[in-house]
Amino acid sequence: MLKHFIDSNSRIYKFSSYLMDLFTLNLLFLISCLPIVTIGASTLALSRVTMKMVEGKLSFPTKTFLHEWKGNFLRGTIIEIILIIFGALLVVAIRLLPILPTISFIIVGVGILIALITFVVFCLFIFPYNARYENSLLGSFRVVFLVSSLNPKVTAGLLILIIAVVAIMSLDSFWLIFVSFFFFMIGFSTVSFCISHISLKLFTPYE
What we know:
0% strand; globular; mainly alpha
């Protein structure tokens, strides 16, 4: 059994190496997010590193993360600001929705729902897209919107998964604690890895 842990070609060794890399990246991400204003830069750095992991090009997780964090700080921060503004406008619109007349409520409500879905899609894919491709910010958001629209099954599947996880966490305190612990240990890096994997398959056909 010990031989499988020592042999660098064994599945157990590779799996344990992946877990250690994910733990390290998750820790770096959490620490670098502590100032809050650096969440965008940290998310973009994490996406760039996990994208390299998906492509099999990652050698030094810590060094790569710090390098990407410094090199993409401005772009990541700008993306964060755009998403915050978008989210804030959605919150204001939702709060104002109840005061509208019935017909206006329905029409505006549908618009807000579409905007909310778009916001979630941007949060999911804008960072991994920028992790792999060079494009203007406006162009990046446009491509993410178009590609996610052209792949409704993938987009809908991710949205349903998010809703399911949130629902489970809301209904049972055990799952709330379990999911929170998971994200504290390897959750953010694992999700970033999975999204990077999905993004690679999603965007590659349109290169």
